[in-house]
Each structure stands twice: as C-alpha cells, then as structure tokens.
Amino acid sequence: MTTTRGVLHIHSAPSALCPHIEWAVAGALGVPVDLAWAPQPAERASYRAELAWRGPVGTATRLASLLKRWGRLRFEITEEATPDSEAERYSFTPALGVFHATVGLHGDIVVPEDRIRHALASATDERALRGALDDLLGRRWDAELDVFRHAAEGVPLRWLHDVG
Predict the structure, then answer these.
(1) What is the tens place of the pLDDT at every residue in 85-112?
(2) Which residue, 61, 114, 137, 152, has fewest beta-carbon neighbours within 10 Å?
(3) In the 3-class helix/strand/coil scheme, how is 20-41 assigned residue by residue?
(4) Phi/psi of residue 7, nearest 5 degrees
C-alpha cells in the first residue's frame, strides 16, 4: 500500500455538522480527528477548519465521497503525487457540486486529451469553447471558493511537501 499525504480545507460548514464531519473524516483516515474550528466570516453561522492528513493513495477520493453527501459544505481536498499515483484536487460547493482534477508537478491542473477533444468537438462557437475550457479548469469553483479562501486570510498557511 502506497501512502501519501494531503490537506483537507473545510471552507464553510454549519455548526451542527462540525462534529459529524470530524467523525466521518476520522473514519476515513482511521485515526481520531480533532479539527480546530474557527468562524467563517464569509457566511453567517458557518465555520472553517483545515487538516493535514496522511493515508493510502485514494484517501482524497474517499474524503470527497463522504463530505459531498452534506450539501451545505464547501471544501477542497488535495492529495500529493507518489511514484505510483498522480496528485489530485477536489473542490465542492453546494451550487456546483464536485470538481475533480489531476494536478501536475508545478500545481497546474492537467486536463486529459480526450476531454479537450470533446470540448473542441462540441463547442458551437468561441464563447462555448471558452466556457467548456473554464469548466475543465474549475474556474467556477475557484470563483465561488475564493470568497471563502480570502475570508480565512491571516490563518497560518500549510505547504504541501515534495514527493520522494
């Protein structure tokens, strides 16, 4: 089993869900979790938390699958690359649902060739093509989550580590 690490950012969660989120994350990671919840200024009666985690490859997928069930959350999960797997990023908002991307060595979103070909083939004009490419890059998710990311400014940053 290959291990990796990543970061879970809960950008906003109603207070009633906070203990349930901790329980679900602890179950997915197989270790107790005690998140440091802080008020989220971008949304009334909402809280945010962050967790650096370590687990088997695919942990980000498991976490995203669990957390998306509570539609009122906003979160992002990253998973670092290993010699056997690519890095990943999940983003979730109640309005947009889940965005998933493979992340390259320098933090760029990597879009598979077949998805680009599909965007090119199905676009009826330049505007439609731009919209399709924006969706492939997660632009709408970033736009919605930026408000919540910036509301957390002043919070200590956690840096991802180099693989290997």
Answers:
(1) 999 999 999 999 999 999 998 889 999 9
(2) 114
(3) HHHHHHHHHHCCCCCCCCEECC
(4) -135, 135
Contact 92, 74 (CB under 8 A): yes
pTM: 0.88
Contact in structure between 14 and 45 (CB atoms under 8 Å): yes
What H or E segment, with its residue span, contains residue 47? strand 46-56
> Taking the alpha carbons of 162, 2, 50, 141 in that order, is the dihedral positive or negative?
positive
Going through 80-120 in order, the beta strands assigned E by DSSP cover: 87-93, 97-103, 109-110
157: DSSP letter: P
Dihedral angle over CA of 130, 132, 137, 142, nearest 10: 80
Instruction: In whole angstroms, give the CA distance from residue 161 to residue 54.
Output: 12
